[in-house]
Structures are given as C-alpha cells and as structure tokens.
C-alpha cells in the first residue's frame, strides 16, 4: 500500500527543478475592440420642407424621407443586431472585479443630477487618479427615472475605468447595466438580489456591521462587504472590519471600510482603520480631502493628492495590506519558482523542441489575438496558460458544493487546513502552493482575485492544488468563478458524492470541462456512507459507464474514496505537528499505524495518492502529466482561436453590412437627386401654367381694347389727352385682369424654390454628416481625422475626385459663377446684372409689363395709320408728333378718313400685338425656368459633392475594416493550422 509517506519520499526531492525561462511578461487589461454597429438612429428633422406643402407626389415624399432619415433604417438595425461579442465561458462574459485596494466614492443621485458638470469633473479627476469605483447612493427616496439618469451619467463618466454600484435598487442596476448593487443591512437577501440581477451585473455588496453579519453575507455569496460601525464611529468600524476579516475563512471577500457622511476621520481613527486592514475604503466625495489628510498625516493642502494618499495608506500601512502581496504575487507568477517544481525533469530532447515550438506559437497567438480581438477578455487565459508552463502541474478540484472538495484536500495534506462544512463554505478560488517552512506564509490576494495559500507540504512541491467554490445554481457567482478557472487546469479532479453521482448539473459542468479538453479524474467521495464494497463498485461502474455514455470518456479513471475517513485516520496517526507561520501546522505521520488503520484502508484514499504519485513523477503514466501540461495552453489556444474565429466572422459580417450601408449613400443620393429634379420640374411647370394663363388673359385684353366697337377705350385714347401713359385703360386693366395674382404666385414659387432647395440639401448634407461622424466614431476615429487623410490624398492626386468640405465649397462657388456668366439676363425687366431666378422675379414689375403692352397698342395704332396714309406722311407726322403723347397720335389718326380706313386693319395688328406679347412672356418664362433649373442643378451638385467630401473617406475606411478583418481571419486560420500540428505532436508524447 502506498501511504502519505510515499508522497514525501526522497526520490521526489531528488528530481531536478531547474527554472524555466518565463515566456511572456504579465499582461494588462484588455482594451475595447472596434464594433461596427450603427447604433444611433438619424435625428429626425424638426422643420418641414417647404415643398412638402406644395408637392406631394411619391418621389417628393421619398426625397423628403431620405433627407430626414438618411440611409435605410432597416439596414442599420440589421447591422446593429449582428455585432455581438462571442463569449468563451458558458455563463456569459467575464465578471467585473473589485480592484484592490479599493477606493469607492459614494455619491448621491440628487447630487449627481443637481450639479452634473462640476461633479463629473470632480469624479473624473478622482477616477483618473486611481479611485476604483463609484457607489450611487440616495437610492431609496428617488424616482426610478432620476436614479436611472444619474446611473447612466456616471456610467458614461466611468467608461469602464472603475466599477459602478447602486445602493439597493437592483431594478436600476439591471436597467442601467451597471456592475452591481450594494445591499443595505435590511435590504434584499444576497441570494435573491443576485438572482434578480442580469448576468453582466455580478457584484453584490452588502453593508454589514459585525463579524457575524459579514460571515453570513460572505457565505450567501456577497462579493464585497461594506463595513461601518453601528454607532457610526470609526473605532466601531475598525472593530467591525477586524471581525469581518476574521470571520471569513481565508478572508477572501473584500472588506471595505465606510467613512460615514456626517463624521470626519481623525488621525487616530485613520490609523486604527488602516490597522484593522480593510481591503478598501468607501467615502463621500466631500470627505476625500479631509480623510486623505488624516490618512497621510499631511497638513499642507497643496501637497495632498487625496486619492493617491488614501490608496498609499491602505496598501502600505500594514503588513496585511492586500495590495503589497498582490504585487508580490505577481512577481512570483512572473518567474519566481520557489512555489514548486515544474515538470522539466520529464523532458527529453524532442519534448524540449516541442516546448520551444509551443512557446513560439503561443507568443504569436497571443500577439495576434491581442491585435485582432483585443476586446476578448479571455485572452488573459492564454497569458496565464503561458506562465503556467513554467509552474508545477495544476490540479483543480471541482464539484458541487458539499461534495467534499475541501475535505479531499485536507485529507491529502493530513490536516484541517481548509474549512469544511455542510453549507457552502468555499466562496473563492484558493491556490495551494509550496513554500519552505521558514518563509512567510501569509495568504496572497492575486490581482485577478484568487488567493494563494502557501504551506510547506511536500505534496505541493510537485503540484499546485486549487480549491474551487462548489458549483450549483443558487450561488451563480461561485459557479462562474470556478468556470473561469477551469481552463487553467492541467487536470481536473471532479468530486462527486457517492449518494448522488452524476446529477444533471454535474453532467452540464462536466461537459463544459470537456470542452476545454481537460483530463478529468472522477472522485466518488463519501463511499463510507455506502453499505459495502459491492455498492462502492456499483457506484464506481455507474460513474464510469455514464462518463462513457454521456461524456464520451473511454476508460474513465474513477476513484471511490472517503475523504472524511482518510482525514480522520491521518489525524489519528499524527505523531507530532510541525508548526509554520500563520498559526498553522502540518502533521508528521506515524505511517505504520496509518497503514494499519481500518478506516484508512476503507477510505481507499491511498489509491488516489498513489495515482497522483505515479501520474506525476514516476511509473508508466508519468509522461501523461507532461502531455497534459503541454496540452493545456494548446487547448486554451484552440478555444480562443475558435472564439476569435466566431468573433471575427461576426465583426466581418457586421462590417460588410456597414460598408453596404455606407455605399448605399450613393444610391440614396442619386434617388434624392431624382426626386428633387422631379419636384423642380413640377415647380417649373407650375410657372409655365401661370405664365400661359397670363398670356391668354393679355390676349383677351388686346382683343377687347383694340376693336372699333370699344368706344369707351378708344375714346379714352382719343380724348384722354391729360392722362399719362401709365394710367391709360390698358395699363389699368393689365394689372387687374392680366397679371392678377400671377406675379405674386410666381414670386412665391421662385422664392420657395430656393428655400426648398437649400433646406433639403442642407438637411441631406447634415444628416449624412451626422451619419458619417457616427460611422467614423464606430471605426474608432473621428470624421475630422478621416477627412484630413482624404485632404492630403486629394492634394497628392491619389485620393480620387472628392475634396474636403472647403474644397467642395470652392468648386461649388466656381460652378455657380460659371452658371451665372452663362445666363442671359431677363429681357422683360432688368437688362443686366441679375443673378438668380428669385432676384429676377423680385424685380419683375407688372407696371413695366403694362408698359410693354401699351407699347404694343400704340404700335398697333401707329402701324395702322402709317399703312393708311403712306410712309412719307408717317415719316413727317412721326417726327412731328413723336414727342407728343399717344393720345395726340390717336386723335390725329382717328380724325382723318385715312385713319378710319386704316383701323380696318386692326385684327391684323391685334394678332401681331398678341404674338409679340407671347414672345415676351415666353422669353421671360424661359429665363425664369432656366434660372430655376440651374439653381437646382447647382444646389444638388453642391449637395452631392459636399456629402461625398466626407462620405467617400468614410466609405474607404469602412471598406478597409472589412479588408483588415479578412486579413485577420486569414492569419488566424494560419495559426489554427499550425496549432493542429502542435496538438498532434503533444498528443503523441509518451
Ligand atoms: N460522510 C462523509 N462526509 C464527508 C466526506 N467528505 C466530506 N464530507 C462532509 O461533507 C461536508 C462538505 O464537505 P466540504 O469538504 O466542505 O465540501 P466542499 O465540496 O468543499 O463544499 P463547498 O466548499 O461548500 O463547495 C462536510 O460536512 C464534510 O464533513 C466523506 O468522505 N464522507
């Protein structure tokens, strides 16, 4: 039989333990990646288009809708839906963590809403100086909407730089998607609050005032404890902190000291607080300065850096400070090998070369993943796995709560080192590592939240053992912690209770473990509760069968044990204890008596121990441990490369949709132009209708005036010698009967045309600009930056035909000037200098038009007379009478017989007059129309060129993202292929 002694024998110690070079330096937090979702909808236009009142055709409506909404809303939605991040862990994204030492600023929602800007500045400064989070208080009295608003403001401010917690209101935590809640002492039970929170909000803090409350909260699954004394005095707080820390086995839930709003902290109180050893402090913003002064002992306000001073005091003030060991731990991880031996002794040349190839591969994979999927938080697993290569074999013990994980470890160690109990007792991950007895043994809180416990047990020289929280559905957080740790394991000891092996949830969790390619040893614990060895065998084969059937594990290694009996036997066989620092001790066993012990024999624990020895250091399966060790980072890479493939694929499809949406702007611009042109044509045809009506009326007027039976009019011409030209009957009727409302309506069409054109074009440009800005932002840059690039590209002649906004404006001005030069001035009114249709129309004067008509009438008479009395006479008469008025002329004409005869020619003259009028009107119409059209074209040209001046760079950048993602996928696929080769090499290690 192999006993505990076997594990301690000298052949273990004789194995070489040369240090392996460390592979990578410690990693940093992952950054946020580029997401190409089009999340913000276009702003709806407030002002209505002028034309919408007048032109209501389908094209007009389409043009307006394009101008108001920009690129198709439907395509934007589909894009937004496609941008999701792939999570490697089944329970979703990784948890938010409390950075230690913590400095949490407590603010009230009322304060946030009342002095938004100033508080944002104060909090922003504190966060950038190192404050680790914000607790939004004052939640009870406020309405949901206000609290939500305050939470969203703070979230925006934090931008992930620290945690955001809300006091008690789990509903707002979910709605505002913040990191978690702090429950008051009377608030919801921790378990209930956790269940009501969404997955992403994983932090549940609880206010406690005593060690008992702290213990309860920790075992309920609280993720941090906020301690304040019942009497709100710092002395009471210090006492409660001490109790809270003491009450927790391993002290792994962070304990935060709360500085109350009303009380100030004196120097003595600060010292006592620091002495109590909290993991952080929570205090109102306005207490910061004074508290920092007390903590640092500085009096000079100028020299104070409140955040830093408080954090320094917390981390440097006493030996139990969490930050210092965390840093120490990092050092250890980065290469200090004193915590155990690696498996180097099992290496031969070919394995050495495999290791080298693996290292090179892992560095490449790490670099690629960091570059192409920086938002994937799980990259840290790869970093860890790389470091882990230099560390002893890592055995992770998992199982449902109460299955006896801690007891198994205790039995391996031969002492009650870890807490056991029928209720969930393990809330955190504990990594057990070797350290020589004469070295300090304080627990170390690692930066990633795990606790390393050191002890001088020989067992730990060859392997590190990890105790994990039990998995079950009630304590979701614990389950997640364990899930997150599993990928690091080189081997998993899956502990199940003999009375309920292979429960549903165990099967689920086992499947998850297998997904990471882990070797699982099935430990059927508590076999002492089974009646005889036949039952034990029955359960063992049940487990083996199910492992094959459900998990596809052939020849599963099933070890039935009784950890409790084994531990009891070892405790009974303990001759003496070797104490080491921290008040702990390890047994020195009387191995003969242990071997004789009935309960030890029944416990079958020796089989587990001998398996471990054989597996790790000698015997036929020793090579398997090396293979597993080398496979761990490869399987992690495999999972991450696959997750990266999915993420890249999702991002590429999103980016392609984005690019299509951006490209569709061109079609939309063409559509916009088409519908604007249709509306413009409708406006011009309205002008034509108005003018032709006026011409018709003018014709009637001419007919009416120029006829012999029109005695009234004719006598006015004959006898109205005093009347001036402008007030003749024709002129008077012209205004009322011919022009009527025409001039007014024409004027309003033309001026509306201009307003309609500019407002639609401006809206279009500004919508697309907003869209382009949003796109630029989604690409992780700004529009200014993108168009700057385009500017220089244009300058160098390689950037296509689109210039910047300024360039577009210059082109537009040139174009417009050219158009103006080409335009003939309007013949009917002003003979020179006008530029736009509006100006032309505004200068249109019906009186001038009336004069033209008068002229025609005069000419009609004059022509009639001249043809009647002969050209010579007309010449004389003309020179003689021309300076006089028309009335005089008519009087002369009508007085003579010849004049009378000549008047018989009137119908001819009327036709002439009308056609002349028509020509004039058509000239006028043509001028107006061509001006309108030119304006429309120039406006649209400007709109398109200006839009393109920023859309084209965005289009290019969006297309570049697609190209980059494709390239990233190609590189990823190459690595995945390389990985397959390495996996095959590793799998063939004997
Ligand atoms: N009968 C019997 N009880 C055992 C055995 N091993 C552990 N127990 C008991 O089972 C209970 C749970 O043991 P723990 O070691 O705390 O179980 P755990 O899996 O670590 O529990 P959590 O840390 O809460 O996940 C304790 O009361 C132990 O005494 C065993 O082999 N036989």
From TrEMBL:
Give the coiled coil ranges.
none
Q: What is this protein called?
A: G13022 protein
Query: Does the UniProt entry include the keyword Transmembrane helix?
Result: yes
* Location of the region described as Disordered in the Swiss-Prot/TrEMBL record: 314-342, 788-807
Does the record carry Disulfide bond as a key word?
no
Q: Where is the Thiamine phosphate synthase/TenI domain?
A: 112-283
Lineage of source species: Eukaryota, Viridiplantae, Chlorophyta, core chlorophytes, Trebouxiophyceae
Q: Which Pfam families match?
A: MMR_HSR1, TMP-TENI
């Amino acid at each position: 039989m192999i006993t505990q002694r076997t594990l301690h024998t000298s052949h273990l110690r004789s194995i070489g333990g040369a240090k392996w070079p460390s592979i990578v330096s410690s990693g940093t937090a992952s950054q946020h990646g580029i997401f190409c979702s089009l999340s913000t909808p276009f702003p709806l236009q407030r002002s209505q288009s002028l034309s919408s009142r007048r032109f209501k055709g389908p094209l007009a409506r389409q043009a307006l809708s394009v101008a108001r909404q920009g690129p198709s809303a439907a395509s934007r939605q589909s894009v937004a839906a496609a941008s999701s991040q792939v999570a490697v862990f089944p329970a979703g994204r990784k948890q938010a963590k409390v950075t230690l030492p913590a400095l949490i600023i407590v603010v009230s929602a009322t304060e946030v809403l009342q002095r938004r800007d100033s508080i944002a500045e104060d909090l922003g400064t504190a966060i950038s100086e190192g404050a680790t989070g914000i607790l939004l208080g004052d939640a009870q009295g406020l309405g949901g909407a206000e609290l939500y608003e305050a939470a969203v403001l703070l979230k925006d401010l934090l931008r992930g730089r620290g945690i955001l917690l809300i006091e008690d209101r789990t509903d707002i935590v979910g709605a505002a998607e913040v990191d978690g809640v702090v429950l008051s002492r009377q608030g919801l039970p921790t378990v209930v609050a956790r269940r009501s929170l969404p997955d992403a909000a994983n932090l549940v803090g609880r206010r406690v005032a005593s060690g008992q409350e702290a213990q309860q909260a920790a075992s309920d699954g609280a993720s941090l404890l906020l301690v304040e004394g019942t009497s709100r005095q710092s002395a009471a707080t210090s006492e409660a902190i001490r109790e809270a820390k003491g009450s927790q086995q391993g002290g792994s839930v962070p304990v935060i000291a709360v500085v109350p709003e009303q009380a100030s902290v004196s120097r003595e109180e600060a010292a006592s607080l620091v002495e109590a050893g909290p993991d952080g402090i929570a205090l109102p913003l306005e207490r910061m300065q004074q508290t920092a002064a007390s903590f640092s002992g500085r009096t000079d306000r100028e020299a104070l850096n409140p955040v830093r001073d408080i954090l320094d005091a917390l981390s440097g003030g006493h030996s139990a400070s969490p930050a210092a060991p965390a840093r120490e731990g990092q050092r250890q991880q980065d290469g200090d090998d004193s915590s155990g031996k690696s498996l180097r002794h099992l290496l031969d040349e070919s394995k050495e070369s495999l290791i080298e190839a693996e290292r090179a591969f892992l560095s490449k994979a790490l670099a690629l993943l960091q570059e192409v999927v920086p938002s994937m938080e799980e990259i840290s697993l790869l970093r860890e796995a790389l470091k882990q290569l230099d560390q002893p074999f890592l055995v992770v013990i998992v199982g449902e709560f109460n299955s006896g994980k801690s007891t198994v470890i205790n039995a391996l160690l031969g002492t009650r080192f870890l807490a056991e109990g029928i209720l969930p007792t393990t809330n955190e991950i504990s990594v057990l590592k070797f350290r020589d007895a004469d070295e300090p043994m304080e627990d170390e809180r690692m930066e990633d939240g795990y606790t390393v416990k050191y002890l001088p047990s020989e067992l730990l020289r060859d392997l590190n053992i990890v105790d994990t929280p039990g998995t079950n559905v009630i304590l979701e957080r614990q389950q997640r912690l364990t899930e997150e740790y599993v990928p690091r394991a080189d081997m998993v000891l899956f502990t199940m209770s003999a009375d309920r092996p292979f429960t549903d949830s165990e099967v689920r969790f086992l499947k998850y473990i297998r997904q990471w390619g882990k070797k699982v040893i099935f430990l059927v614990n508590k076999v002492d509760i089974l009646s005889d060895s036949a039952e034990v065998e029955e359960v063992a084969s049940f487990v083996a069968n199910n492992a094959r059937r459900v998990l596809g594990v052939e020849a599963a290694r099933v070890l039935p044990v009784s950890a409790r009996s084994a531990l009891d036997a070892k405790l009974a066989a303990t001759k003496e204890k070797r104490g080491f620092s921290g008040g702990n001790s390890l047994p020195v066993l009387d191995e003969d008596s242990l071997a004789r012990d009935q309960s030890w024999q029944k416990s079958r624990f020796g089989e587990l121990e001998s398996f471990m020895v054989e597996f790790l250091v000698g015997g036929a399966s020793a090579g398997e441990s090396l293979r597993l060790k080398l496979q761990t980072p490869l399987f992690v890479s495999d999972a991450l490369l696959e997750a990266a493939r999915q993420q890249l694929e999702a991002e590429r499809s999103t980016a392609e949709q984005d690019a299509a949406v951006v490209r569709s702007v061109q079609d939309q611009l063409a559509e916009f132009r088409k519908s604007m042109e249709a509306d413009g044509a409708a406006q011009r045809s309205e002008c034509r209708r108005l003018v032709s009506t006026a011409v018709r009326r003018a014709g009637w007027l001419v007919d009416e005036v120029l006829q012999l039976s029109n005695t009234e009019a004719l006598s006015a011409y004959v006898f109205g010698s005093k009347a001036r030209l402008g007030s003749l009957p024709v002129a008077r009727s012209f205004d009322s009967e011919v022009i009527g409302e025409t001039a007014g309506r024409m004027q309003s069409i033309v001026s509306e045309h201009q307003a309609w054109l500019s407002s639609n074009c401006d809206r279009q440009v500004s919508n697309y600009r907003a869209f382009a800005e949003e796109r630029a932002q989604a690409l992780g840059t700004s529009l200014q930056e993108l168009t700057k690039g385009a500017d220089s590209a244009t300058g160098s002649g390689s950037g296509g035909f689109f210039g910047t906004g300024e360039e577009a404006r210059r082109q537009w001005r040139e174009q417009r000037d050219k158009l103006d030069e080409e335009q003939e001035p309007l013949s009917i009114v002003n003979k020179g200098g006008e530029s736009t249709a509006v100006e032309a129309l505004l200068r249109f004067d019906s009186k001038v038009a009336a004069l033209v008509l008068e002229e025609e009438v005069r000419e009609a008479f004059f022509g009639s007379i001249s043809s009647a009395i002969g050209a010579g006479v007309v010449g004389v008469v003309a020179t003689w009478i021309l300076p006089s008025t028309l009335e005089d002329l008519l009087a002369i004409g009508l007085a003579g017989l010849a004049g009378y005869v000549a008047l018989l020619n009137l119908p001819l003259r009327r036709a002439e007059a009308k056609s002349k009028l028509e020509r004039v009107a058509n000239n006028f119409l043509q001028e107006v129309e061509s001006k309108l059209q030119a304006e429309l074209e120039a406006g649209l040209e400007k709109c398109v060129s200006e839009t393109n001046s920023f859309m084209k760079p965005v289009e290019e950048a969006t297309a570049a993202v697609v190209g980059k993602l494709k390239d990233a996928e190609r590189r990823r696929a190459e690595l995945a292929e390389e990985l397959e080769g390495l996996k095959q090499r590793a799998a063939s290690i004997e």
